[in-house]
């Protein structure tokens, strides 16, 4: 599927919310009718389950028992488990467009999604959206529910934040952009409090950001930022990289998955006032210890010819990409 909406519909078909043991059918027909009867509800009556039908408890057991053919895999999301159980206990809540109201967390991983379409606006209660490992290059913020608090776009092809920052969700607390194609210095201007007033966690690791001074000047406006991940960017090769960030962002608690302790903050005190230390260059020394799969010239058999026989030359080329 090319869009998030199409991927979600495919996911619903996989969950089978209208199929046994979920949904409405002959396996729970009497129970549904009794529950929907105002007279039975007012009297608190519980009718016996007719032969051939199942109780809600028995149907739930088929979902939860890992030996059952209808059980979800152990690594499925809590949201999927919740939807399946609601489809047993109150399947009428998930009929038609109602299913969109029941979803607070949506995870669509590695499904070939290319477009974040406006169909997402149907999820009026959505708080967490995980779209990692797809083929998304642009995000239109007008298509994102305003209720979002977590947005993960890791391992995609996002190379520009302008569309995402046009009308970003105002309550967003975590933004994950790990392993995309962001490159500076044009993107730093989109990472300010004007766009993300409640951002607590930001993951920009393994992109192509190079302007440490420009990035810090923008991130310093994010007063709620506590977790920052920048490792894997060229700017992380600068010798004073960590110290400069620690001193420049005093409210930061975790940098590159490492907690910032008071003694470290004291150690780097004053670096923020020495921007000349953050020179935008670095030297990398690479040593090759062993190479496999290449012919060894010493092991080659020399042709049986005279002293002026043919000369065999081997050439090897090693390429590094940063």
From TrEMBL:
It comes from the Eukaryota. Keywords: Leucine-rich repeat, Repeat. Signal peptide: none annotated. The keyword Repeat applies. One of its GO terms (cellular component) is cytoplasm. This is LRC43 protein. It comes from Platysteira castanea.
